[in-house]
Task: structure prediction
Amino acid sequence: MYACAKFVSTPSLVRAGSRAIYRPLSAAVVSDSRKAETASLLAPTAAAQQLVALRGFQTSAVSRDVDTAAKFIGAGAATVGVAGSGAGIGTVFGSLIIGYARNPSLKQQLFSYAILGFALSEAMGLFCLMVAFLILFAM
Result:
C-alpha cells in the first residue's frame, strides 16, 4: 500500500499533472469546453504515459463483478449450515421415537430433551442463515 502511494504521488507526476489528467478519459473527451486539454491528453507525451500508469489503480467493473460473485459464493457456503440443521432436527426426533419405543415410561422426560435438541439445532441453522444475509447485504 505504501509503495502504491509512493508511486502515485511522485513529484514529477504532481508537476506534470493537471486537472484533466486526473479526470476519466471519457469525461475529458466528451467535454466540449476543454478541447485543448483533450488534445494534450491524447498526445503521446510523458504526462500521457503517467496517466496510463495512474489508470491501473482505478476500480473497474470487472473487479466489482468479482466482488459480487465472491459475495454470492460466500453466502451460498454459509447457507449449507441450514441443511445441517435440518439433518440434526431429523436425528433428534428419530432418536425420540427410538427412545420412546424402548421405554414408554420416560415419555415426558425424553420429549423435553427432544425439544431442547430441536431448539439448539434450529438456532444453529438460523445463525447460518443470519451470516449468509450479513454477507449479502452488510458487506
